[in-house]
Design a protein that fits this description.
The structure is a single chain. By secondary structure, this protein is of the alpha/beta class. The chain is built from 62 helices and 64 strands. The protein has a 6-stranded mixed beta sheet with strand order 5-19-20-3-21-22, sandwiched between helices.
Length: 1856
């Protein structure tokens, strides 16, 4: 809790009972116009938020609830990932408690790429791509027959049924090298081990080449594997099976069965091979069926399905014509006459009716006309076959060098279907596979409703020929089916999966997203929906309600902004915001059940629901004049069925029909676009197909009125839009004082002229770029938000300034201007009256239009239209106004107002045409056109036309039914209670990821669950690869497609089903502690926010005078520029962009409008005209070139240029000299004493990772290496600097000294002289976390600075206080991350992740207790339990006994590791008794908890050397970090354990003192300039070497493996090289390396994978097809050692390898060490990049032990005696080890000591402590309060210590 200034805790006094009861609790909600109310919303309910338009619904739902829930969850992502998500503004609310992660399903469609489709948005495509490889049938692309794959079983069945009692030869083919003689071939085959071959109809032995006298002309020979006489005996069957299987293996999947007399021959293939066509097709993989993957995407169109080329449809403009009538237009001229003759002739031969209209031809006949016969068009033409219209254009393309041909082709060129894939988007290989005889492209193109009929409930009998379908295929089938059903249920059955997402309407897109969220199966999530009923016919609304209920019943909270009556009545709770609109709204007027009979005077919603108010149908309808109307004939666009329809004019017409029936197609595509085209207007999209439209001469203008924003900037306001502001300005100009001063109306404009504020340019506010936070807008400090200069505000009209008038509401303004006796004032009243007529009287005159809702925008557009017509004379012709669902976002009362406006428009002589589903609007229409009867292909017909009464009487009309239906008020069907047994559990079924053995288990919600087991048993696989991966994948799948493309998408784990899974957050182990520049403040992001704070509200002090900089006059700047221009000419620049990411094309457009012709972009001169996009995610600096000046420039020109530059640069400009030097000019930042100018403060100024901020001498390290980089050895300075950074990061402390320039502050002088309250940023960072909190609390901000600093300080405070809560308050903010202990690093990560204060989240933690002292462990457990009690679920992978005993639920995996693990050996609550477990319990965890180890394991401890003898290492004056001038003694030849609370100084001593001291002594280093962290050391001379084993990674590429690191791979390669076959072939050990040429697979370079890259698509790694991931070439893999080739050996686990190499001492010794340290489950060839920190450390331990043993052995062999002992320094080797493995590790440590070595271990594991010969306990606390020795001696002595924090825990362990 953050302390307030008075010292009280501001949050504890609040009543939090509501959110603890399962509520989302909001206090003081003040976003936008909301009036600071409190509200509690129940979790797990369907809540509807409603109210009049502009009342504040979206402010509550989206800008408060969604923004906070989304922001908190996104905060748990990495900083890199967060930058790709939309920044969510922190809402204006005092407190939010109990909010779950939130997902918004909004209106609108922001998708711009055609790569996104309905299939990709819903995830159906992802499931289909997995399903197809499992169940699709392969078809031959030539003969189109199904391809059946063979297997040894199927071949054996064939020979037993067809060739019983016959002798056969089982054979395979072997390729013969070209040009090889027969005897050479025989010798070659013999050397390969092949004994017999078949040539012709005879058999020859390969060891008798002299008996073969002919020449082998074939490119292959047939090798005989075996000769067998087939019989029913088991022995013969077994022999035949073995021969067939071997032949398949050696013959690469193909074999021959030949009768012995060579009379018959049969070929079989394991692969996808068509015997008829001798064609092999590609094996199916998931990537092959994705157009977003380079493996599957068509290479020509890259998966878009379209290319820029010839549009064949354009060549057939009138498809009602037949072939004979000339349907192909280009064939009708002289150039194409021959082609017309060819087409007619070939069509007759083909049997196609040439007199039938093209539209009536079958699909295959149309394709034949367009594309011709299969094969090459040129070849077809030569043999008289039809080459297609495509072939004609292909021929012309070859002549495109001729101008007239290019002109001809341009008529038919556009973005069109890709000719290569024909729009399928996929490679031809993918189309060879079919489900239900449909390839994937055909499935995508079917409507969802039709696809559902084909799909059915399950695979069923569709794949009976394949045998049993695997469980994965069944799950994929079910997932596709459920999503198809959801799409159909929300009224989208007419869509196809291939429908481009960009073509969807806002309502369709929202319902597609709703389907996606349902499919994701998330729980504990807040879904916020924005009017999902938009675009839905009343018939489909009930389905939508059921879908939202499903989402709720799955365990989510569904909050819907909605006005649809049926949705409101179906809700569990209604929240009504009102009572009015705008400033008159923003209050909570009702909250409760929509069934309530209670009415409030303020709730308009309840009045309409109760029937007190209603929208009445007009008593009299207008007469329809048939003579005047639009006549549409033959409309055929999309699904319209050759439609003829009449639309009457000068009446109110409503077009309705079910979703997808063709309404928008008819009105937008056919009517509007064709009318615009007829009037010579240009439309973005081509008009829809129609024969004719007549009657358009009876209308004046065609106007499409939608709900798009009226303006994107704040300059446009209601008073400006309706034209009233012009008259208001004129009124002000007529004031006597204004007339006397000579001011014109333009003086009173805030958009231009001298009257507007020069600082904010009339905006009234300034944007403050907040970089890591959302940008904020603050009142302009100069005009205080009033937009004008003080001179303008002095002029008063009837006592009010122009600013005060702009602050009036429309209603107030009408009252004000009505009292002024002036025609201009009456004009203003007339304009404003129209706003009140459409219900907008509550708007302020100066309210920016970009803040209005969609409904408000639409009504203002109506006003604009009404006003425009008032200016014109009365005409007979009226306008045609088109509206597409105008009731979107409108309350019942708003609809009532809108309808009155419509009726007024019609009364004024206009025609109103509305697409609408709202029954209240439909019943008020004069004429209705009802389309249907269904959506998609079943729509596109006229169902009914006429008045509402005529529609009601039509039995076939769904609209008529709902118009005639009597709505029963306050009544809705009761919902069945859902009894979901698993609602409080995460249910996992069939988990098979990695080594998991088809696990089925349940994990309780809101509990503390521990997953434990032996190392390698599958714990992390279950927790991270299944739970976390699936939880985060589902959440991200529910987000926008744009955001998803930047986040590393998790692959779907191999699991059948996961239900009840909430959004997940992973807190994993991190191996790296960061680079040399990483500090506590940077890794926690505190420093990012401090930089932002200092750059926005800090005060710059002069580096020379130590005086605060201040404003400088323009005249003094001009004088300085004049003096500089006398020396040389210069360019005057204005800084526009400072280190901001983005394309910045909008900046160039702005510059062009300002008359700026050139930019300096990142130092390069660039023209603003034709400006190209910059790299989006790279920081850019842009300066505008304002003027080029020299000594001849006039004073007026210089002053004017400086004034412009300072305005553009917001007070800062630059003078760029020809030499490249620049001088800063600042009107805001100049020293009053010396005149030194400074640039505007920027966060980069404080970054020591950037040249803009770092100290030039130490380059941001704070220290300087004694040896500088040699720049001559590098190609460039950058190369030298990178090398320096690597060296500095890895260098030892003795090689560094504190930078004398910045004194370790890291930043430059300018940055060090920026202060807040006399405190610099480097001073703050030098403090501990606790002290820094105190300093932050002392900071006092006022005015604008207070607004800017508010959110930044909150972020800093939150991070600091949580660090303090997890016990890290002692850490200095500038403490290097490389010096942190493992425990400190882990808790920093916890602090940064757990500060989000979320509810309903699943936190997955990976051994959070690593590096923690038992005392600190207890503190951490309390923190985690507190997190659980907030309503979250915790899954912790852990071995720690204390953590396991505090868990609510335990899952123990085993019984072994690797392939012997992956099973559940214990599950449930941990209730341990003193009774021994039964035999059935396999749990090693339960055994270790119940059967405690007796220490010491060997029965006794080693005695300690005598004091002051040579048996001790003695170090004096140890002073690294927090060590207090310690003297430390360590016994030689003993096991010593360093322990103590986290941060007490253990790592500082071992890594900062002991290791460097030994290195200096053993290597005799004595550098005077280096820092020594000790005074003296004794005893080091008794050692030959020191080995440090830490947790840094052991390799950065997949080429590094455990086998290579511990050097056993060298010995293994030697063994393979001495195999007889290797000797024959001359293979050396190097031949068996996958890192060098020779034996490795050259296709993939020994990687086993190949990198695929394609423009627009992500880089993909695929298994190498040549070696199938084995890394080696075929010849190498033919060498076997005891039945295993080199790839087999590398895939072995360490445990299996121990058995395999048991007779090879050089290998087995190392492998047994690996096994004994708990790594028996690792494979020898596992990439090092996949190892955890603990695994890497234990591999290092083995490597160092073997290195030390080898060194000692070599010394003894050379006769060297004396100092052959080694010192081993090991840091927390038990990380990641189960207690059973700890016992083995202890054995390894004892064995080392028994060999005469000395082992020093930092450890918190009590079992290791209890085994020590000697212990050093450090403390008593952490940080400055640590650094001393609290106890030393044997474990028994430590356990008795009263000062030691370790004692009480160790005492318990020593009891057993």
């Amino acid at each position: 809790m953050i302390a307030s200034k008075s010292g009280k805790k501001t949050g504890e006094s609040r009543n939090l009972s509501s959110w603890k009861r399962g509520m989302i609790s909001l206090r003081g909600v003040s976003q936008n116009n909301l009036k600071g109310f409190d509200i509690d919303l129940p979790l797990g309910k369907l809540i509807v938020v409603t109210g009049p338009s502009g009342s504040g619904k979206s402010s509550l739902a989206f800008q408060t609830l969604y923004a906070e829930g989304q922001r908190r969850y996104i905060e748990t992502f990495s900083p890199y990932t967060r930058q790709f998500f939309d920044r969510m503004d922190k809402p204006n609310v005092k407190d939010v408690h109990g909010i779950p992660p939130s997902i918004a399903i909004e209106q609108g469609n922001n998708v711009r790429t055609t790569r996104s489709t309905v299939g990709t948005l819903t995830g159906i495509n992802d499931y289909l791509k997995i399903l197809f490889p499992h169940v699709a049938d392969p078809y031959c692309p030539r003969c189109e027959d199904i391809i059946l794959q063979d297997s040894p079983d199927s071949v054996l069945e064939f020979v037993n049924s067809k060739l019983l009692e016959k002798s056969i030869l089982v054979c395979f083919r072997v390729p013969v090298p070209e040009g090889m003689e027969s005897d050479e071939i025989f010798r070659f085959l013999s050397s390969q081990g092949y004994l017999r071959i078949a040539v012709g109809d005879k058999i020859y032995r390969t060891d008798e080449p002299d008996k073969f006298c002919k020449e082998i002309k074939s490119s292959f020979v047939i090798v005989i594997q075996d000769r067998i006489k087939i019989s029913k005996s088991k022995k013969i069957r077994s022999r035949a099976y073995e021969a067939i299987e071997s032949a398949f293996t050696i013959g690469k999947g193909k074999i021959l069965i030949i009768e012995q007399d060579f009379s018959n021959e049969w070929s079989f293939s394991k692969g996808l091979h068509c015997e008829k066509c001798e064609l092999t097709i590609k094996e199916p993989t998931a990537g092959l069926f994705s157009f977003n993957n380079p493996i599957g995407a068509c290479p020509e169109c890259r998966g878009f399905g379209r290319t820029l080329g010839i549009d064949l449809i354009r060549a057939l403009p009138d498809q009602e014509l037949s072939i004979s009538e000339g349907v192909v237009k280009p064939f009708q001229g002289e150039r194409g006459a021959e082609c017309q003759e060819d087409l007619i002739a070939c069509a007759k031969i083909k049997g196609i009716d040439i007199d039938l209209p093209f539209t009536k031809l079958t699909k295959s006949e149309k394709e034949w006309v367009l594309f011709g016969e299969k094969g090459d068009p040129e070849a077809n033409w030569q043999i008289g076959l039809w080459y297609g219209v495509q072939g004609f254009f292909s021929w012309l393309e070859r002549k495109a060098y001729k101008m007239h041909v290019r002109v001809f082709l341009s008529r038919y060129r556009s973005y069109t279907t890709c000719p290569s894939c024909r729009g399928s988007r996929l490679k031809p290989d993918a189309l060879n596979f079919r489900i239900a005889k449909l390839n994937l492209s055909e499935i995508w193109q079917l409507p969802v409703s039709e696809l559902l009929q084909i799909w059915g409930e399950g695979p069923g009998d569709k794949f009976s020929h394949k045998g049993k379908i695997d469980r994965t295929a069944e799950i994929m089938w079910e997932e596709v089916h459920s999503r198809l059903k959801y799409l159909n249920r929300v009224g989208l059955g007419y869509l196809s999966l291939d429908r481009s997402a960009r073509s969807l309407s806002g309502g369709e897109m929202q319902r597609v997203h709703l389907t996606t969220c349902l499919g994701a199966s998330l729980v504990n999530t807040l879904f916020v929906l924005d009017e999902p009923s938009i675009g839905l016919h009343p018939r489909d609304t009930d389905q939508l309600i059921n879908v939202m209920r499903d989402l709720r019943d799955a365990g989510n909270t569904v909050l819907v902004v909605e006005h649809e009556e049926s949705v409101i009545r179906a809700s569990d709770q209604l929240v009504d915001i009102g009572p009015g609109r705008g400033e008159e709204g923003g209050r909570l007027v009702f909250q409760g059940s929509p069934e309530t009979r209670h009415q409030t005077a303020e709730s308009l919603t309840l009045e309409y629901l109760s029937g007190a108010k209603e929208i009445k149908e007009p008593k009299k309808k207008r007469r329809i004049l048939k003579s005047k109307g639009l006549k549409i004939r033959g409309a055929k666009e999309n699904n319209l069925k050759d439609l003829d329809v009449d639309i009457p004019l000068k009446v109110f017409v409503c077009v309705t029909g079910v979703s997808g029936s063709g309404k928008s197609t008819l009105i937008h595509d056919v009517l509007y676009r064709n009318l615009m085209r007829m009037r010579g207007e240009v439309t973005e999209e081509p008009p829809g197909k129609v024969k004719s439209i007549s009657g358009h001469k009876d209308i004046n203008e065609v106007i499409l009125v939608d709900q798009s924003p009226l303006s994107r900037n704040p300059r446009s306001t209601p008073v400006v839009y309706v034209g009233a502001f012009e008259f208001i300005r004129k009124l002000f100009a007529e004031i006597p004082e204004a007339l006397e001063a000579g001011h014109l109306p333009g003086f009173f404009s805030f958009n231009s002229g001298a009257g507007r504020c020069g600082r904010c340019w009339g905006n009234g506010y300034e944007k403050v770029e907040m970089q890591f936070l959302s940008d904020i807008f603050v009142k302009c400090v100069e005009c205080e938000g009033k937009r004008y200069t003080p001179q303008v505000l002095n002029f008063k009209l009837e006592g009010k300034s122009i600013h005060e008038i702009l602050e009036l509401t429309v209603d107030s303004a009408i009252s004000f201007f009505s009292l002024i006796n002036n025609k201009k004032a009456q004009k203003v009243v007339m304009f404003l009256n129209h706003l009140t007529e459409v219900g907008l009287g509550y708007l302020r005159l100066g309210q920016p239009l970009n803040t209005l809702s969609g409904g408000e925008s639409q009504r203002i557009k109506l006003v604009g239209h009404l006003l425009k017509k008032k200016k014109k004379k009365k005409e007979d012709k009226g306008d045609l106004l088109l509206f597409d669902e105008p009731t979107t976002g409108l309350h019942f009362d708003d609809i009532n107002i809108l309808l009155k406006a419509f009726q007024k428009l019609v009364d004024n002589g206009h025609s109103v045409l509305v697409i609408e589903h709202n029954s209240d609007v439909i019943k008020c229409a004069d004429y209705i056109i009802d389309l249907g009867p269904e959506g998609g292909d079943e729509g596109g017909n006229i169902v009914a036309t006429g008045s509402p009464n005529e529609i009601r009487e039509n039995k076939e009309s769904y609209t008529g039914y709902f118009l005639g239906e009597k709505i029963i008020k306050n009544k809705r069907p009761k919902r069945k209670k859902i009894n979901n047994k698993n609602s409080n559990e995460i249910s996992i079924r069939g988990a098979r990821e990695n080594n998991l053995k088809d696990l089925t288990l349940n994990i309780p919600h809101e509990k503390f669950t521990v997953i434990t087991g032996l190392s390698g048993s599958g714990k992390s696989t279950l927790a991270f690869d299944v739970l976390f991966a699936e939880g985060q994948r589902r959440f991200l799948d529910s987000m926008s497609a744009y955001a998803r493309q930047f986040v590393q998408q998790m692959e779907r784990p191999d699991v059948d089903q996961v239900d009840g899974l909430p959004p997940t957050v992973a807190i994993e182990q991190r191996v790296s502690r960061g680079g040399g520049k990483s500090t506590v403040s940077t890794v926690t992001e505190i420093y990012h926010f401090l930089r932002l704070l200092y750059s926005k509200v800090g005060t710059q002090f002069c580096t020379k005078c130590d005086t605060a900089v201040e404003k400088k006059s323009i005249s003094s700047i001009s004088t300085l520029v004049h003096s500089e221009l006398k020396k040389c000419k210069a360019k005057l620049l204005a800084p526009i962009v400072r280190g901001r990411k983005g394309f910045h094309t909008d900046t160039a457009e702005w510059a062009l409008r300002q008359g700026i012709s050139h930019f300096y972009v990142n130092g390069f001169l660039v023209k603003t005209d034709g400006f190209q996009k910059l790299e989006r995610y790279k920081e850019h600096t842009i300066d505008a070139v304002v003027a080029q000046l020299d000594k001849n420039s006039s004073s007026k020109e210089i002053s004017k240029s400086i004034d412009a530059a300072l305005k553009f640069g917001k007070g800062t400009a630059k003078l760029l000299k020809p030499s490249g030097q620049s001088m800063v000019l600042s009107s805001e930042m100049s020293c009053p004493n010396c005149g030194e100018a400074y640039e505007e403060l920027d966060p980069r100024l404080f970054s020591y990772n950037s040249p803009h901020g770092w100290c030039l001498d130490c380059r941001g390290y704070g220290y300087i290496a004694t040896i500088q980089p040699d720049y001559d050895k590098h190609d460039s300075i950058i190369s030298a600097e990178l090398d320096e950074e690597r060296r500095m990061t890895k260098s030892k402390q003795v090689e560094k000294e504190v930078c004398s320039t910045c004194n370790g502050a890291r930043i430059n002088e300018i940055a060090r002289n920026v202060r807040i309250g006399e405190k610099s940023i480097n001073y703050l960072c030098s403090l501990s976390v606790i002290k820094a909190i105190e300093e932050i609390n002392k900071m006092n901000f006022k005015g604008v600075d207070k607004v800017i600093a508010r959110d930044i300080v909150k972020e800093i405070h939150q991070r600091m206080t949580f660090l303090d809560e997890v016990g890290l308050g002692y850490l200095g903010l500038d403490r290097s991350a490389t010096t942190l202990s493992g425990g400190e690093s882990q808790r920093i990560r916890l602090a940064s992740q757990l500060g989000s204060n979320l509810r309903g989240v699943l936190y997955v933690l990976d051994e959070p207790t690593i590096g923690l002292h038992p005392r600190d462990n207890d503190k951490l457990l309390e923190t985690l339990l507190k997190l659980r009690d907030l309503g979250n679920s915790l899954v912790v992978v852990e071995h720690d006994d204390a953590t396991i005993s505090r868990s609510d639920h335990l899952i123990d995996l085993g019984p072994g590791a690797g392939n012997e693990g992956g099973e559940i050996v214990y599950e449930g609550g941990l209730r341990l008794t003193k009774q021994k477990p039964t035999k059935r319990i396999q749990s090693a965890t339960v055994r270790s908890l119940t059967e405690k180890i007796s220490h010491p394991i060997n029965g006794s401890r080693r005695g300690l050397p005598k004091n002051n003898s040579k048996g001790w290492i003695n170090i004096k004056g140890a002073n690294a970090n927090n060590l207090n001038d310690l003297e430390v003694n360590i016994p030689i030849g003993r096991l010593t354990v360093l322990t103590g609370v986290s941060g007490s100084g253990k790592s500082s001593f071992m890594r900062g003192v002991l290791k460097p001291a030994f290195d200096a002594k053993l290597n005799q280093k004595n550098n005077k300039n280096t820092i020594k962290t000790w005074k003296s050391i004794k005893g080091a001379e008794q050692f030959s070497a020191v080995y440090e084993v830490d947790q840094t990674p052991i390799g950065k590429t997949s080429r590094s493996t455990p086998a290579t690191y511990v050097k056993v791979f060298d010995e293994i390669r030697k063994l393979f090289s001495i195999v007889p076959e290797s000797r024959v072939r001359g293979y050396e050990p190097g031949h068996f390396s996958f890192n060098t040429a020779g034996g490795r697979c050259e296709e993939c370079g020994g990687n086993g994978q190949i990198k695929l890259e394609m423009n627009f698509l992500p880089t993909t790694w695929v298994q190498c097809e040549e070696c199938k991931g084995a890394r080696y070439n075929t010849a190498t893999l033919e060498i076997f050692l005891n039945g295993k080739n080199i790839a087999d050996v590398m895939n072995m686990s360490v445990s299996d390898a121990c058995e395999f190499f048991k007779s090879h001492p050089k290998i087995i010794t190392t492998l047994e060490l690996l096994r004994d340290t708990g790594l028996g489950y690792l494979s020898l060839g596992q990439p090092s990049t996949t190892l955890s920190g603990g695994e890497a450390q234990r591999i290092k331990l083995v490597a160092e032990i073997r290195k030390g043993q080898s060194r000692t052995r070599n010394a003894i062999m050379k006769g060297k005696t004396g100092k052959n002992a080694n010192l081993y320094l090991i840091e927390e080797p038990t990380i990641g080890l189960h207690q059973s493995d700890v016992v083995n590790l202890i054995g390894v440590l004892h064995a080392l000591v028994d060999e005469g070595h000395t082992v020093v271990v930092i450890e918190h594991n009590l079992s290791v402590m209890a085994e020590a010969d000697f212990m050093i306990d450090m403390g008593p606390e952490a940080g400055p309060r640590g650094g001393t020795i609290t106890a030393k001696g044997t474990p028994e002595i430590i356990a008795k210590s009263k000062k030691s924090e370790t004692a009480k825990f160790l005492k318990e362990t020593l009891k057993f």
